[in-house]
Structures are given as C-alpha cells and as structure tokens.
Amino acid sequence: MFSTEDQEAILRYIFSHEANMELALGVIHARKAISERIIKDFLTRLEAKLVLEVRQLGGSWDVVNDLKKDPFQRYKQIYITKNDWKEDDQDLYRISLGPEKWDAKGFCLGSLERLGQAWPKTAR
Fold first, then answer.
1. What is the rounded CA–CA span in Å between residue 120 and residue 101?
2. Which of 8, 49, 63, 81 has its CA at 20 to 30 Å from residue 113's CA atom?
3. What is d(CA 76, CA 102) in angstroms, rounded to the nearest whole number?
4. Could you give phi then psi for residue 118, rounded to 5 degrees?
5. Average pLDDT over every residue of 50-73
6. What is the pTM of this model?
7. H, E, C per residue of the chain
8. Which residues, listed in sequence order, are joined to residue 90 by a DSSP beta bridge?
C-alpha cells in the first residue's frame, strides 16, 4: 500500500516529536474502530445500491445485510437472493459478500448453493 520510501517518511514524522508519537499510538489503538467505520459505511452504500438494482430486475429479490451490527462477525454476509430460490423458507442459493475471517482482513465474494444441505461430493 505504501512504498518503502513512504513508510520511512511516516516513521520520520512519527519519531520527530512526542505529540506525533502519541497520535500514531492513538491511531494504532483505534485501528479496529477505524476499520469498522470504513466497512460499515461501505456496506450501507452497497446495500442501498443493491436494493435499487434488484428493483430494476423485477421479481421477488431480497437484499439482506447481516453485517450491519458487526462487520467482523464470521459467517455473516451481505447477500441477494430470490424468493424463487427458497425451499422450506431457507435460501437454496445466494450471491454474497462476507468476511473471510473473523477480523475482516479479507472478504469473499461468491455464490452459495444448497444452503443448509450437505454438499455433493463432487463440489468439494
């Protein structure tokens, strides 16, 4: 993200004055809150855009954002599904985006199928 030269400039700035060091330590301490705000803002905008897009598709699409409260929660997602893709009130298929790990260092985008059912052996 930052070149070696950029990192060196940042380090020089941080270590040049005690107040700069205090600011840097505060940023480190607030890292999770900063990440959470960035991710929540992104997900809110994405959800609003998806709602508009699926309306244009027609049919009975749902947009669900399970990550509103905690974007770091494992196994939660923002996803779209269609009512025709349900069986016994459970989604059979989804197009989703969710954290790869509990700390949201990475996100996975993909489709899920056969939710709540055993996967066929060939799908592994």
1. 24
2. 49
3. 10
4. -70, 140
5. 89
6. 0.72
7. CCCHHHHHHHHHHHHCCHHHHHHHHHHHHCHHHHHHHHHHHHHHHHHHHHHHHHHHHCCCEEEEECCCCCCCCCCCCEEEEEHHHEECCEECEEEEEEECCCCCCCEEEEEEECCCCCCCHHHC
8. 87
Q: What is the per-residue pLDDT for 105?
A: 65
Q: Six-digit token pair at 42? A: 């992104």
Residue-wise pLDDT tens digits, 13-25: 999 999 999 999 9
- If you count them, how many residues does the chain have? 124
Distances (CA, A) of 77 to 27, 63, 65, 69, 71: 27, 10, 6, 11, 8
- The whole-angstrom distance between residue 102's C-alpha and the CA centroid of its chain comes to 11
Rounded CA gap, 108 and 92, in Å? 19
The residue type of 28 is I
Q: Which residue has the tokens 């205090």?
A: 22
